Amino acid sequence: MTIMPGAEPADQRPDAAEPQNRAWPAVLRVFYEPRLAGPDLAGCALWLPLLLLAVSAALASYPLLFRLGAPALVDLKVHNTPEGLTRPAIMVFLFLQFAAPLLIVIAAWLAGRITDAWLLFVVDAGAERRPVLRATAHGMLPLAAGNVIAAAVRALAGPDSNPLNPLASNLAFFLNPAETAVFWYEFALGLDVFSVWAIFTTGLALAGLVRRKVGAVVPALIGAWLGMLALRAWLLA
Question: What pLDDT score does 192 carry?
């Protein structure tokens, strides 16, 4: 190989260095500048935000489940349900507790697919599926923050707190379970600050990715969110 005088070999030039891993910077940026982080999220790995969501769901569900045990947890849920729980509803409740890490990953993936279809057929943004899925998964990370905070509050709270709903971040916290229909109480459990934060974070990230207004992206996310909440509430009612 001939090297010109004063020139550096290609593999020793500063601009030929290995690209740095942008996964963690992108994860952090999605919290404080999601719209600007949107284009960068298209090149990030999908597994990292999904793993963080799954781990956070496990932290929010499993310590309580193993500390109280399934029978005591069901009794607590029945005590906080005005009309009690049917046997199928009890099975659904336990399934939601055990499968929480898997279900939050499925919910993020499903939200990404619904949003991808919305961008393709309604907004006509012409975005590729993989970048949309990656941006959606990263945008859902405020849900992970909510799960971690709920787990910490649940671990530090006193015996008078409600371990099933420890945070005053959702509408159900301010409702009386004994005076509220089961469907609407369960539906209100999902109307929380962290879900709204996740929706708008995802909307901003996708808007930056496809270069559209946030208002063009958010309706698909809101529809997917409300649909999942309604399905959960219906299964538990």
Answer: 93
